[in-house]
Here is the input.
Amino acid sequence: QHRSFDDETGLPNAAYLERRIDEEIARAGGRAGAFAVLVCGIEGLADLARDGAPGLAARVVQRLAEALRARLRDFDVVARLDDDSFGVLLPEPGPDVDEHIATLARHVAEDVRKDERLAELVRLALRFGHAVHGFGADRRDALIARAREPRIRTV
Here is the structure.
């Protein structure tokens, strides 16, 4: 079980999210819009880790993980994809996925900015992209690749 979780955030890792996406694909059958995949990334995290105060990049990652967790529904799945990005599986995202994602992105960015310790030290830029099953992407790899394409940037 330990291999399914990220040590730094305690969240599931990319392999776990991939398995859950495969399960949702099977559950959805041919029903388009049954779920969406969101990717949220931190722009410039590698530079921040190299040039910032010690532990600052880790604090940014932890704060973003907390903000995502707090803004998701109980049955959504958030996972750490790699050093600077998180993936979210959103089952049954509703009829207006774009609006749902835009609202989520706005709230997550606001929550991260509320951390005064971070606000004093760094100006963060987050990027959000998403893909909806059955709308141009049906396979896991295609869904994740499309979701990695930023549609929203917040500063």
Remarks:
- The chain has a mean pLDDT of 91.
- The first strand starts at residue 35 and ends at 43.
- DSSP finds six helices and five strands in the chain.
- Strands lie at 35-43, 77-82, 85-91, 125-132, 152-154.
